[in-house]
Design brief:
single chain, Arc Repressor Mutant, subunit A
């Protein structure tokens, strides 16, 4: 089964966050750098629903996995 392709900004919408370029940049600035020893879903700034979505995505390697990995990298390198 072919996985759907989602844009990075779509992940922010999926998480219930503003997904325009300025808002994404501000989010990354506000929450970076995320320490390497903190799993992305365990970061303190997520709501329980957001953390659950991120956990599920990473565990199931679903069609959002690439964008979640991209978010994790962006938060650790910003």
């Amino acid at each position: 089964m072919e996985q759907a392709h989602h844009a990075f900004h779509d992940l922010f919408a999926q998480l219930g966050l503003p997904n325009d370029p300025a808002s994404i940049a501000q989010f990354l600035k506000d929450h970076s750098p995320l320490p390497g020893d903190v799993a992305l879903p365990d970061a303190s700034f997520w709501t329980p629903a957001q953390a659950a979505f991120l956990n599920e995505t990473l565990q199931q390697d679903n069609d959002w996995s690439q964008q979640v990995d991209q978010l994790s990298k962006a938060l650790r390198t910003s």
